[in-house]
Amino acid sequence: MNDREYGIFLPIGNGGWIMSDTAPHPEATYEYNRTAAMLAEQADFDFIMSMAKWRGYGGTTDHWGQTLESITMMAALAEATERVKIWATVHTNLIHPAVAAKMYATLDQISHGRSGMNIVVGAYAQEFSQMGQWRDDFDHETRYRYTEEWLKVVELLWANDTVTFDGEFFTLDDCQSRPHPAVHPTLISAGRSPRGLDFQSRFADGSFLTADDLPGLRDNSQQVKELAAAQGRSIKTYSMLTVVMDETDALAEAKFAEYGRGVDTEAIVNMKLSWGLPLDKALSMTADSSGYEAFQTAVVKGSPDTVHERIDELMQTTGIDGLMLIFPDYHADLPPFGEQVMPKLREQPQPQPLSQQSHHSASASMSGVTA
Predict the structure, then answer these.
(1) Residue 71's domain spans which residues?
(2) Any domain includes 370
């Protein structure tokens, strides 16, 4: 049985996931995302997910200068859909665990048990310092220790009528949070640092991974699964992929080249600076003439048959359990993908070697993106 999972990363920020002024420019509106979610359900996708973002990157496209809030939007999309899983993102350093516990218990009811919590350890200083919510004394390790305690509090509130808790970061005194979720929300987390993989292996149901190439993605997937198994747990692994599809390979290549031609270098540099990179390194990393720099994930491009073959080969080579897909124009791209690619992806895959061409197409820009 083919039990691979496929989802879409909703364009909750203006510009979607391509930083270019020659690419389609999804607007950060509920109506756009509602249509995308409904099309994804019609196309037989398994889940929809949205990021949380609080500050954009400027540039000629004002990339992500406008964003919607993840949890409230996904609650509305739970009403607009019937089957797809609803995965919303929470920054643990912004929302108190008691508030988050109540929000996701509510989302559980709205979605009839389809809810998921994408747990993000906020790491971009400027994004949070603008609202006075950045702590310079929280290094990488401390942020994860904080998030582990944050999640422990959420879990206690989901399971008990009253919680008294005295921890390193949180204090609760006869704290009540009812009703509890009828279905435990799916817990998702991303990151490939050793500390991030450790957190995922011990607490998450799903791990979103990135790597520089397909062998690296396979190794990361195996590592987090082995770490989870050592804890007596199992975990599913996912990655992200942008799909540029047209009727023929040549047309898809031309579309890809056109999107890459208008790369918003200023916005990309600002994004890399937000990661904490020095300016000279951010500039050097942006000096790419191949067109991939405009895309925030790995890219697969081609006709429907080629896209299917590349995705199938990627999945078989890496052994991951699912993919979250990104489309340049969700409204135009989802219907043909659902009609011409998804039925083939749902078929029982046949083992086949990864060709050199497909390895290049699917992994040439296997760089990370953080929700």
Answers:
(1) 5-363
(2) no
